[in-house]
Amino acid sequence: MSMKQVLIVGFGCAGYHAAKAMRESGFDGDIHVFSESDDAPVNPMLTTHHVDGNTPFKSLPPLGSLCGLAREFNLIVHSGYRITYIDYEKKLALRNDGAVYPYDQLLLATGASAVKPSFPGSRLAGVYTMRTMRDASLLKEHLDFVEVRKAVIVGASAVGIKIAEFLHKRGIDITLTDTATHVFPLAALPNTASLIENRVKVKGVELLLGHGISGIVQKDDHLVASFSDGVERDCDIAVLCIGTQANTQLAGDAVKVRKGIVANSLMQTSVPDVYTAGDCCECLDKQRDGTDIIGLWANAAMQGDIAGKNMAGILTHCEGNIPHNITRFFDMDFISFGDVSKTGKQISYESPDGNFLIQAVLENDKIHCVNILDCAAASGVLKSFFMKRLIEPDTVLCNNERVRLSNQGVPGWFIRELERLPRS
């Protein structure tokens, strides 16, 4: 294989898996990696665990140190630097110190950043966002050295509810807020959300749903968070967990961007020899027949692997993915997959003891979405079946899969409804 120079801009999960796939596919050219941080790739959801005070910083990166990865895959790592501009016609990348790097192929794996709203007071001391290891360290340092009695958490999805759990364990009074009228608005069906909310309230967490934050002010020795309907809450800290936005700035006007940098099934962008993968990338959504950002660690790994193989000359197609959520919090497991915004016939089963709930939305031969609360063991079979149904609508469960679901407490009538078999 002829020597080429490849640039990987951003070294999170997608960048790591691209570099790994290139080397494993026999690519022997130079791979330059540009990372603004000295940190190794880490799952953004795992950074929240550092806040609980029991997870050491060094144990968070699951793939090893940056230096170790550089040695393992023979990477030229530019840590602490960022690429500020790319000339896609001349195939040149400009570093923030003025250095210029030519490339034969380039991977945009720039990830996503926490949304930082511009309401009054959003930049006050004591107001935090949660996405990166640095974010987690700043919040933990505050908690370790300053007395915190009350906290307002804005955003009642996976990150927000995990932060609520960890702060609650520290004995802090929590108000969890969201503009949506129920928790996990992009993943939970209303009945599932209601059961989660009831359990969270029993823990002593206040839920303030359907309230949009409008501002934060400093008052004496504490903060006051105000909401659009006039409600106010005193707090010592506020943590903003209101979502992410793809880092697409380097795409400029040359590369096609919608919500994210648009990729085809080979992870190629609209510009020749430029690829993309990870949370900055908008790729095939198998359920919606289009492209979308599916910001998951496993999805970034898959996309990076496929991009790396194609950059190394190994033709590999991405079959796409679907939105899904796997979150454990307050001793609960919540799993969802599919599009909860779609309408259809809802089927639901709650165990007599109230410890297990499973719901699905069906329409004709399609399963639009599935919610599972506290039965994680059933999720593997159900997700596999869901994915097969997207490709072949006549797919049914095999006998072994039906037995496995039944053994996990899923009733026979629910299984037959999923398969569209008549009730007996």
Which structural category do the helix and sheet elements fall into?
A: alpha/beta
Number of DSSP helices?
10
CATH class of the largest domain: Alpha Beta
Task: State the major sheet.
Answer: 5 strands, parallel
- Strand order in the largest sheet: 3-2-1-7-19
CATH superfamily of the largest domain: FAD/NAD(P)-binding domain
Mean of residue pLDDT? 91
E-strand count: 26
Globally, the shape reads globular
Uncertain stretches of 5 or more adjacent residues: none
Percentage of residues in helical conformation = 25-40%
Q: What is the CATH architecture descriptor of the largest domain?
A: 3-Layer(bba) Sandwich
- CATH level 3 topology of the largest domain: FAD/NAD(P)-binding domain
Give me the Rg, rounded. 23 Å
Count of discrete structural domains? 3
Distance between the termini: 62 Å
Strand content: 25-35%
Task: Describe the overall structure.
This protein is of the alpha/beta class and 424 residues long. The protein has three domains: 5-112 and 255-311, 3-Layer(bba) Sandwich (FAD/NAD(P)-binding domain), CATH 3.50.50.60; 127-243, FAD/NAD(P)-binding domain, CATH 3.50.50.60; 342-419. 25% of the residues lie in helices and 29% in strands. It is built from ten helices and 26 strands. The chain has helices at 13-24, 44-47, 66-73, 133-145, 158-169, 190-202, 297-311, 379-391, 399-407, 412-419; strands at residues 5-9, 30-35, 76-79, 83-87, 92-95, 100-102, 105-108, 112-114, 127-129, 150-154, 173-178, 206-209, 213-219, 222-227, 232-235, 237-240, 244-246, 261-262, 274-276, 281-285, 290-292, 324-329, 332-338, 345-350, 357-363, 366-373. The chain has a five-stranded parallel sheet with strand order 3-2-1-7-19, covered by helices on one side. The protein has a five-stranded parallel sheet with strand order 9-16-10-11-12, with helices on one face. The radius of gyration is 23 Å and the shape is globular.
